[in-house]
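Tutorial, part two.
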Amino acid sequence: MIKTILGQVKQFRRDSLLTPVFMIWEVIMEMAIPLLMAAIIDEGVTKGDMRFIYQTGGIMLAVAVLGLIAGMLGAKYAANASAGLARNLRASMFENIQNFSFANIDKFSTAGLVTRLTTDVTNIQNAYQMILRMCVRAPFSMVTAMIMAFLINGKLASIYLIAVVALGGCLFLIMNKATRYFKEIFPKYDELNASVQENVSAIRVVKAYVREDYENQRFTKASESICRMFTKAENILTWNAPLMQITVYGCILAISWLGAKMIVWDQLTTGQLMSLLAYCMNILMSLMMLSMIFVMVTMSTASAERIAEVINEKSSLSNPAKPERQVPDGRIVFDHVDFAYAKDSKEQVLKDISLEIEAGETIGIIGGTGSAKSSLVSLISRLYDVTAGSVSVGGIDVRDYDMEALRNQVSVVLQKNVLFSGTILENLRWGDQDATEEDCIRVCKMACADEFIKQFPEGYHTYIEQGGSNVSGGQKQRLCIARALLKKPKILILDDSTSAVDTATDSKIRKAFAEEIPDTTKLIIAQRISSVQNADRIIVMDNGKVEDFGTHEQLLARCEIYRDVYESQTNGGGDFDEGGDN
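Running the prediction step on this input gives:
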């Protein structure tokens, strides 16, 4: 974990090394001031030597300025290093997330990843800055002040030693007890972020069902849980201040009382007593700094573990040593394929699937909810790897391809596809960033999107709000289909992506596909048989298996499931899940 976090310091190593140097410089200057002050009192004030007072005062001023400069430079370099570390951590996490397979993504919640990229990184940034400055300054200051105090008077300095040991033990017990609460807080942040994210993304549904009060209660519950945990931790930490004050004032009283006696007995000068009091404050304040560091490190340890978990997560999918970069054609072969989302799962999602699909064919895929239709097509672009058997595209196992090259030739349009904030043209160019406006218009005509885009005042330059909230479901699906077509893929997969489109438009889209992209293999997942009955062949899925595979006429003749659903739908019934007894 520590190696992972520190490995992200990278180009900020110089700043990270310079910060402790300036902190040590600042401490040395601070330690010199009490000695100079003692000299002024003992040699200047006592003897009435104004020249000595002015000379030593000038030296004190110069030392103070040098200490100030050192402190400012230390703060500057620490800020640069900590902010740079935070930037690198976010960049590394985000970059690694982009390389995750679907199996990796399934391990982390969206809210959890957001918390790691924001709250957890901020905790690490604050802790790193404090460590660079205080972890060097506080111990060095405490040790140096202790040595100087013993050089002045060992008997009085021993009071510091006893106080430091006693206070250090108490602070350790306090921090140890507070640590448990801090470690439990950050998973609570995930729950809070999940509540906010879900509410904001579904705010229209919340208002439609008048669930504002319920959502408020849900958010309040998550927020109060965090509040309670922080309150418990802070209540424990509140003992820091009174213990510190008791120790400080106790030391001052003890040193003042014993020191006054020593002055009377000529065993100590007034200046030395003033120096000892100054070193007393240095020692005890350094100890307080160390306790603050311990709190910050304790809080950030949980954050560091969560961040390291994301950075060190290795994609379950990787390119072969010598990957194929050219996809010959859109021919697809499933050879005795088994698949489960978890490697150690005993329950297979797909069971012994064997299929051969020729390039340019239009294949319909139907089946009830949970029949693994989407799982089947996810294996084609290698979003997941098969558990057993193989899937090949263009006569080559998908595991032998460069993943980027394969996915550039397999376009997938999901039922709930996503549009991003930006213009329609910017969204379309996700398919081909170099596409001209004419290219975009051409694919939009194929997807029957051109007709509604032209009705917008700004046409193809119309701004799409985040998530496509200012277009209808059917319009969003057609834009996503156009975006996929712009890739000029050898395989096009439509995963129930015309469910929000009316039947007439659905028919136009299928006709355009047949005429404009005859060489592209098209796989159409649908609930409506009317959407796939004109396909070259149709796959009927049931419970993770291929129940039958053939033309519309062949399936009507021999597949009871297909026939029952067809008759149900043509007689005014529902979709696949509502038709037949199966």
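Residues 337 and 353 are 5 Å apart (CA to CA). In part three we will examine how such features are distributed along the chain.
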